[in-house]
Amino acid sequence: MNEPTSSLTTPSVLMVDDTPANLELLSVMLKIRGYRVRAAVSGKLALQAARNDPPDLILLDINMPEMSGYEVCAELKADEKLKNIPVIFLSALSETMDKVKAFGSGGVDYITKPFQFEEVEARVETQLELRRKERQLQENYDKLRDLEKLRDSLVHMIIHDLRSPLAGIYGFLELIGENTRGTLSPDHTRYIAEAMKSAKQMIHIIGDVLDTSKMEEGKMKLKLAEWDLVRILQEVTPGLKPVLEGRQLSFTPPKQPALIMADCDIIFRVIQNLLANAIKFSPRAGGLIELKIESSGNRVCLSVKDNGAGVAPEYRQKIFEKFAQVELPAGRQKYSTGLGLTFCKMAVEAHGGKIGVDSEEGEGSTFWFELPLNGPGPLAGKT
Q1: What's the rounded Cα separation, in Å, for the pair 219 and 255?
Q2: φ/ψ of residue 305, rounded to 5
Q3: Which of 72-76, 198-202, 232-236, 347-351 has the lowest mean pLDDT?
Q4: Bridge pairing between strands 57-60 and 12-16
Q5: What number is the average pLDDT over the span 271-280?
Q6: Rounded distance, CA 314 to CA 319, Å?
Q7: Comparing C-alpha atoms, which of 44, 99, 110 is closest to residue 76?
Q8: 308-349: per-residue pLDDT in tens?
Q9: Could you give the CA distance from residue 128 to residue 21 in angstroms, rounded to a whole number?
Q10: According to the model, what pLDDT value does residue 220 have?
Q11: Residue among 306, 340, 94, 78 nearest 207 (CA)
């Protein structure tokens, strides 16, 4: 090992030791290998030097007056700008507990004096290479985050611009249906109804995209009021009857109202999405969707159970992620869950609640969410 791994800038090393002879010897050797080397004879001077010009790596002695190497390392790790600098302890202390304490204070390696320079060089280069890889990984991550933000902004802009034309299409289809009632053939009437259904689904998708973006950015404020969850559910179900297509809905209201502090419109959308999801994945022939509301302690739970193909264990968390794709048992078909379930998760959590799914492949799924009776706590309510 004659030279450090090439990089855009020459790696800098800060050496900390209260013995000038040690500093001089190691400094000469590292400079010959192409490193930029600075020296400090005390912990306080080392901290000052690191803050003025953060090095790529620090070689740190332990036994020093005023401030030990352990204390210096702990202060470095407590500083947001310096905490990622690798620290290699270089000490005559050879007991196991000394090494344990060094690693506990934030050190990444430990070299015992007297040392062989080849060993020091190898360990320094190893830690510098890890540091370079870490920086490159962070840079790549930052670039991906920027690209993701750009993509989300573009999607948001396109989706927002589509909302008005789609609303116009739906409105004109509705007018055509009303003005031509009784004059069109059954097939043409059905075509208009199907087109309206598709337009309405697209409008719902647009709403999910826009509202999910608002929640992610913390821009959607909850309009909290006391509501009966049973009443909200009963207002959702009539609008879904046209898309049931033979499937059956079953719901027995509880004897007592299920009062919650919530944003009615958002919870309405959550229930609507869960029901639409259950309808989508239930068989038309013999499809049964069971709804249930139960109260326990200071929380109320709503569940939507279907008799569809079910969800495999490895997908039960993934289906709540943005644009997730799940594989169903029947023919191993893949279906996109879009943003509907993502919206549900964020909306429920904004209310201080929880959402999940209980499922077995081939035995259907039960999607559920529970909400606190008294509304979200101070942190959840900020969404």
Answers
A1: 37
A2: -110, 130
A3: 198-202
A4: parallel
A5: 89
A6: 10
A7: 44
A8: 888 877 777 888 887 666 555 554 445 555 578 888 998 999
A9: 25
A10: 73
A11: 340
Residue 302 has a pLDDT of 96
- How much is the pLDDT for 101? 94
List, in order, residues 6 or more apart from 298 with CB less than 8 Å away: 372, 373, 374
Q: Which residues contact 148 (CB under 8 A, 6 or more apart)?
A: none
Q: Give, as one character, the DSSP assignment of residue 207.
A: H
Q: 3-state DSSP call for residue 241?
A: helix
DSSP string, 45-108: HHHHHHHHS--SEEEE-S--SSS-HHHHHHHHHHSTTTTTS-EEEEES---HHHHHHHHHTT-S
Cα(205)–Cα(216) distance, integer angstroms:
16
pLDDT at 377: 63
Look at residue 150 in the predicted model and tell me its pLDDT.
82
Q: Supply 13's token pair.
A: 């090393």
Instruction: Please tell me the predicted confidence (pLDDT) of residue 329.
Output: 53
Helix ranges, the chain (H) = 20-32, 43-52, 69-78, 96-104, 117-179, 186-216, 229-236, 264-280, 340-350
Kind of pairing, strands 248-251 and 288-296?
Answer: parallel
Q: How many CB atoms lie within 10 A of CB 335?
A: 14
Instruction: Report the alpha-carbon distance of residue 153 to residue 323 in Å, rounded.
Output: 16
Contact between 293 and 260 under an 8 Å Cβ cutoff? The reply is no
Nearest to 105 by CA among 73, 136, 80, 131: 73
Taking only the tens place, the pLDDT of each residue in 288-306 is 999 999 998 889 999 999 9
For residue 204, the one-letter residue type is H
Both tokens of 102, joined, read 């060094």
**Closest alpha carbon to 277 in 369, 366, 186:** 366
- Residue at 61: amino acid letter: D
Q: Which amino acid is at 106?
A: G
Q: Which pLDDT tens digit goes with each residue over 77-125?
A: 999 999 999 999 999 898 999 999 999 999 999 999 888 889 999 999 9
DSSP state of 26: H
Calculate the CA 29 to chain-centre distance. 47
